[in-house]
């Protein structure tokens, strides 16, 4: 059986799906998910789906839905169609040569892997040699106006079964809310995420946070402040975790060199696709770092792809991928992503991701469509 597939057509869908409630972190507020869905069809008529899913307004990165849309329609889709017979296991090397944001690359590679898996009647995890297992899920909670609101959200999500809680922090909203959560939930697996809101001059804040038995402090400093992160980590017992700093293999090498972190949050979208994410996990684990799978968050298609990766034994913390209903008034998958009362996500059996795309929902939320055919 050939390791390649022949791509016949690609359709891009720009969709906007409202959040259940606005999500606030240190650098902004977002109220809807603006994403690009990629439908790929082979010559045999087999479909694969991908998703390019940066947050709008450069929320977590320089990439935006507009930049991903432009990159896909002007560069990546034409490059894919020009290849002819495409091997998904090596296509990430072609993508590395393309001038485009990582989210666009992750979307088109995800669609290619999904089509390939469906054509072979195999699951994504099986293609990557990953043993199927339930995936522990943790919840990410934004910034609120009052500590009372924060405590209420933590209580709700703990009661729903999430295995750990991450709360967002920013200058002025850090030690006090963490102390309050820890006082109410002394045994809760708890971590914080600063989204690069601090500098090394804030060492006193992190020394205070070091008292609360946190699982990790995620991305305390700017993405390129890697030497300073090494200095900060040397002063703390709590492990630092890289997110924005871990967007490529070259940046991962710098993190390892400077002993800047002990944990890596690997986001399939941020690093450019499943193949790059798997390579980064392997390099990080070989260097003695622990890893987990994060989210931007994405809609169901990209979340399903990341869940297959998260089943890998190299990921040792709960994922940030949560139930569809946690984020969205609706999602585009059947069945929706859910967690059980013990805080696990169970991926359906079946080829590809095991989930099905609901075309009626895509039509409902689509704001633009572009088609490409050979």
Summarize the structure in words:
With 374 residues, the protein is of the alpha/beta class. It folds into 2 domains: 5-121 and 359-373, Enolase-like, domain 1, CATH 3.30.390.10; 127-345, Alpha-Beta Barrel (TIM Barrel), CATH 3.20.20.120. 36% of the residues lie in helices and 22% in strands. It has 14 helices and 16 strands. It has helices at 65-83, 91-96, 102-120, 124-127, 147-160, 175-184, 203-209, 226-234, 249-257, 268-271, 274-286, 300-310, 324-327, 359-365; strands at residues 5-25, 28-42, 47-52, 85-86, 135-136, 139-141, 165-168, 190-193, 217-218, 240-242, 263-266, 290-293, 333-334, 344-345, 356-357, 366-373. The strands form 4 sheets. It has a 7-stranded parallel sheet with strand order 6-7-8-9-10-11-12. Strands 1, 2, 3, 4 and 16 form a 5-stranded antiparallel sheet that branches. Strands 5-14 form a two-stranded antiparallel ribbon. Strand 10 (240-242), helix 9 (249-257) and strand 11 form a beta-alpha-beta unit. The mean pLDDT is 95.
* Residue fraction in strands: 15-25%
Question: Major sheet: size, sense and barrel closure?
Answer: 7 strands, parallel
Based on the structure given, which CATH architecture of the largest domain is correct? Alpha-Beta Barrel
CATH hierarchy class name of the largest domain: Alpha Beta
User: What does the average pLDDT come to?
Assistant: 95
Output the CATH homologous superfamily of the largest domain: Enolase-like C-terminal domain
Tell me, what's the shape? globular
Intertermini distance:
24 Å
Number of strands: 16
């Amino acid at each position: 059986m050939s390791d390649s597939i022949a791509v016949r057509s690609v359709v891009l869908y720009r969709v906007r799906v409202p959040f259940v409630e606005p999500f606030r972190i240190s650098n902004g507020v977002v109220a809807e998910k603006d994403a690009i869905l990629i439908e790929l069809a082979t010559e045999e008529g087999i479909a694969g789906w991908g998703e390019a899913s940066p947050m709008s307004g450069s929320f977590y990165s320089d990439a935006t839905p507009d930049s991903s849309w432009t990159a896909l329609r002007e560069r990546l889709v034409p490059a894919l169609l020009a290849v002819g017979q495409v091997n998904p296991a090596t296509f990430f090397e072609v993508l590395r040569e393309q001038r485009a944001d990582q989210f666009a690359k992750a979307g088109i590679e995800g669609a290619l892997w999904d089509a390939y898996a469906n054509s072979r009647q195999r699951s994504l995890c099986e293609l990557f040699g990953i043993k199927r297992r339930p995936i522990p899920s943790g919840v990410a909670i934004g910034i609120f106006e009052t500590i009372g609101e924060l405590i209420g959200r933590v209580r709700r999500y703990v009661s729903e079964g999430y295995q750990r809680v991450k709360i967002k922090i920013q200058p002025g909203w850090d030690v006090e809310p963490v102390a309050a959560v820890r006082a109410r939930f002394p045994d809760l697996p708890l971590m914080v995420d600063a989204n690069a809101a601090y500098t090394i001059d804030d060492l006193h804040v992190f020394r205070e946070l070091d008292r609360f038995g946190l699982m990790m402090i995620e991305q305390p400093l700017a993405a390129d402040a890697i030497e300073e992160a090494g200095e900060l980590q040397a002063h703390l017992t709590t492990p630092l975790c890289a997110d924005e700093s871990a967007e490529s293999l070259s940046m991962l090498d710098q993190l390892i060199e400077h002993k800047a972190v002990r944990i890596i949050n690997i986001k399939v979208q941020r690093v450019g696709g499943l193949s790059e994410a798997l390579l980064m996990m392997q390099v990080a684990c070989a260097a003695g770092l622990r890893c987990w799978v994060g989210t931007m968050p994405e809609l169901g298609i990209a979340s399903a792809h990341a869940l297959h990766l998260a089943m890998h034994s190299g990921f040792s913390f709960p994922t940030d991928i949560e139930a569809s209903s946690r984020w969205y008034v609706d999602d585009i998958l059947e069945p929706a992503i859910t967690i059980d009362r013990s805080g696990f996500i169970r991926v359906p059996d079946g080829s590809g991701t095991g989930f099905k795309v609901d075309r009626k929902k895509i039509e409902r939320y689509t704001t633009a469509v572009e088609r490409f055919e050979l």
